[in-house]
Design goal:
By secondary structure, the chain is an alpha/beta fold. The protein contains ten helices and ten strands. The protein has helices spanning 3-18, 26-34, 51-62, 72-79, 99-108, 124-136, 154-160, 175-184, 221-224, 244-259; strands at residues 21-24, 39-45, 67-70, 87-91, 114-118, 141-145, 169-172, 188-198, 208-212, 229-232.
Amino acid sequence: MTQNKQNEQQTSNETSEASGDFIIGRHPAVSALKSQQTINKVFIQEGLKADAIHDIVKLAEKRKLIVSQVPKHKLDHLADGQNHQGVVLAIAAFEYADLEDVFKKAAAKDEAPFVLILDSIEDPHNLGSILRTADAAGVHGVIIPKHRAVGLTSTVAKTSAGAIEHVPVVRVTNLVNTVKELKKRGMWIFGTDMNGTDYRRWDATGSVGLVIGNEGKGISPLLKKQVDETLTIPMVGQVQSLNASVAASLLIYQGFSTRHLL
C-alpha cells in the first residue's frame, strides 16, 4: 500500500471512530469498566505511566477488551477537544426499547402509564437532563423521533447520571402516528402552548402522555393537532422562555405530584 493510501485509510478509520460514541476521562472510564456496559475498545495515550492509567488497563484486560496505545493527537480527535486525561473508551450504541416495554414497565408497577414524547429535542444535555428527571419522577418511558433529533449518545448518557439505564427510550419514525397509537390505547395527550391551561391545574392521573417541544420551534403543528389539552407555565420575569429540560422538569413533577398525593 502506498503512503497516500495509508494516510487515506487512517483518515477513514479516524472519521469512522469519531462518528461513534465515547466515554471520555479517567473517572467515567473506570465507572464504565466496572459496570455491565458494552465497550468496544479502550484507547490509552501512549507513554502515560500514572497509577490511574495502570488501573484502567487492568480493568480492561480483566474484561478481555482490546487496549490500544495511541498518540495524544488521536485522543484529542476522538474526544473532540474535551479533556480526555489520556483515556477514551469506544462504546456500543445504547439499545432502544419498544413501545410494549413502556407499557410492561407500567404494568409491572401496577401504575397507569406516564409517558414523555419529545418532539425533536436537539441538545444532548437537554435529553440527558430530561431522562434524569423522568427516572426520578417515575416516568415509564420516553419516546423520541429518529430524524432531526438527538439520540442516545455518550453525552446524553453522561448528563443523565445513569438514568439512561433505567428509563426505556423508544425511537420512532413518525411521532404523529405513535401518538395516534397511544390514544387508541386510551392515553390522554398533553402538550405545551403559550395559551394553554396553567400547568399547576394539571391532573395527570390515569394514562397520560406529555409532549415536550423542540428547544426553538416548540411542538410541530401536525403533532399539536393530536394533543387533547395544552398546558402553559406562567412567567412574570423579563425572559419569557425556559430551557427545554427545565420546562420538562416542572411539568413532569406537576404530573408526579398529582399521581402521588401526600
